[in-house]
Design the sequence.
């Protein structure tokens, strides 16, 4: 069980906001825009945006810091991004530094003469270089500002924008709509601002963000839904933006109450869940080889969790076997560790059991910080929470040529962080074993049917974005074991004998 997923989702969503750039045509070198960041009306951090223009080169630096409460202590995390463009908004270079663990992670790209970008990524002290084909039409900060400004004069206009995020090296294709001018109250006065709405289509549903722009296309206010609450970014003075944050327990916000006590004897056998989200919300859960999802109507879903059977999700692809910036399965230290851990195991199931047991014992300092470490950092520091258990286990599995994925979801706890009978954010690993995806949980030392999968990825923290709108919006209406379903049982292949799940 871990408290980091909500932090990562929040940081990602804030860093992809368009239009947060100082004006290019009137700004003097060093001009700075300050914004305060609120969640549910409570201050959680600030955003500093600095603009510089030298000749025809525009440099925009955005520095986001949020402070979240954990057991009474405030822990800062953040992301700094810098974009370099010409006056027409064409990209020349980018840089990102993410403070998500004990070591900063950096991404730096510069434009080559042929229009491609040379990109250097450093995570956990491991540096990798690639050549990036710039996505057609993608824009950085200044390009976003220019597009917003051009559209502002046309109320009712619908247009599209492709925003490149340096931190994740990904493109968000968004639908934009110009709503029109409105009088907006900010912390230190009112302004007439141009209201534009951004709609991002994700694999799991729709994410909507509203922006209010001044006459230079600068966002002075932004709002979006996050964890069941409203997230606001509001322009104000430096003193206002840098005021001390208020106590917001992000982990408690992301918990989901259980409608019943789930004793150990129920957790290793088949369970059926009825899950509710508000109408218009995204699909809350995914199909896996252990989790079968049936939609009842616009708001309710049945989720059957039991023994792994093939066909619930696609077989392995390249992203499930290759090393990446966060799951460095080709690193000598991880290759050697994996070989030692599996010993003489001669089949993949036995190898995964040994790897799971090894990782459970190897990480001996639990939950010491808020963030997200790469597999190599975990090898070095031997500390972390569920995400660190997961990236290390996935890296060791891939080092043994076993395809592996990192799952984002929830798991049941009788008591956690002062709450009783709750499902809390969690991460674990799926491995392709015996022709199907099977789950292995190194953090809790076993997988059971109280693990509800919301999304999955290749171990990169930014993949958690797909679950961003789910935490705080899901309600579990009922949990039913097979013994209480009478004649409404799922197919036998989905049901799980206790011994088949508890050992993973």
Sequence:
């Amino acid at each position: 069980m871990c408290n980091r997923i909500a932090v990562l989702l929040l940081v990602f969503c804030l860093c992809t906001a368009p239009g947060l750039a100082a004006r290019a045509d009137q700004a003097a070198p060093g001009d700075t825009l300050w914004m305060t960041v609120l969640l549910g009306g409570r201050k959680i951090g600030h955003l500093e945006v600095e603009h510089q223009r030298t000749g025809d080169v525009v440099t925009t630096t955005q520095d986001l810091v949020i402070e979240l409460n954990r057991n009474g202590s405030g822990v800062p995390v953040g992301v700094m991004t810098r974009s370099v463009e010409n006056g027409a908004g064409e990209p020349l270079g980018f840089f990102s530094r993410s403070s998500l663990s004990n070591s900063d992670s950096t991404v730096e790209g510069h434009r080559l003469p042929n229009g491609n970008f040379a990109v250097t990524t450093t995570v956990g002290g491991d540096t990798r270089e690639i050549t990036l084909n710039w996505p057609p039409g993608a824009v950085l900060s200044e390009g976003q500002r220019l597009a917003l400004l051009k559209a502002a004069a046309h109320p009712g206009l619908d247009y599209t924008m492709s925003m490149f995020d340096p931190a994740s090296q990904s493109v968000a294709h968004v639908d934009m709509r110009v709503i029109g001018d409105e009088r907006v109250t900010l912390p230190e006065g009112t302004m007439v601002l141009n209201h534009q709405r951004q709609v991002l289509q994700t694999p799991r549903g729709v994410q909507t963000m509203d922006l209010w722009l001044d006459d230079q296309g600068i966002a002075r206010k932004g709002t979006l839904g996050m964890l069941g609450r409203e997230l606001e970014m509001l322009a104000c003075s430096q003193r206002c933006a840098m005021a001390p944050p208020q106590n917001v327990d992000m982990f408690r916000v992301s918990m989901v109450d259980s409608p019943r006590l789930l004793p150990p004897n129920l957790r290793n056998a088949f369970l059926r869940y009825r899950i509710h989200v508000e109408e218009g919300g995204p699909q809350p859960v995914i199909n896996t080889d252990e989790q079968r999802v049936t939609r009842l109507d616009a708001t309710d879903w049945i989720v059957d969790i039991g023994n792994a059977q093939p066909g619930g999700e696609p077989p392995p692809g390249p992203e499930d076997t290759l090393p990446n910036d966060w799951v460095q399965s080709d690193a000598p230290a991880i290759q050697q560790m994996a070989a030692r851990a599996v010993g003489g195991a001669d089949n993949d199931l036995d190898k995964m059991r040994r790897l799971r047991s090894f990782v459970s014992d190897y990480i001996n300092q639990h939950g010491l910080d808020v963030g997200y470490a790469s597999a190599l950092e975990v090898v070095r520091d031997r500390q972390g929470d569920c995400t660190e258990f997961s990236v290390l286990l996935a890296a060791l599995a891939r080092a043994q040529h076993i395809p592996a994925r990192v799952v984002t979801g929830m798991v049941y706890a009788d008591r956690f962080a002062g709450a009783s009978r709750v499902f809390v954010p969690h991460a674990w690993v799926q491995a392709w074993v015996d022709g199907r995806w099977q789950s292995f949980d190194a953090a809790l030392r076993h997988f059971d049917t109280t693990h509800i999968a919301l999304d999955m990825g290749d171990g990169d923290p930014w993949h958690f974005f797909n679950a961003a709108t789910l935490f705080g919006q899901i309600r579990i209406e009922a949990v039913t074991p097979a013994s209480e379903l009478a004649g409404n049982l799922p197919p036998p292949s989905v049901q799980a004998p206790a011994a088949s799940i508890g050992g993973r």
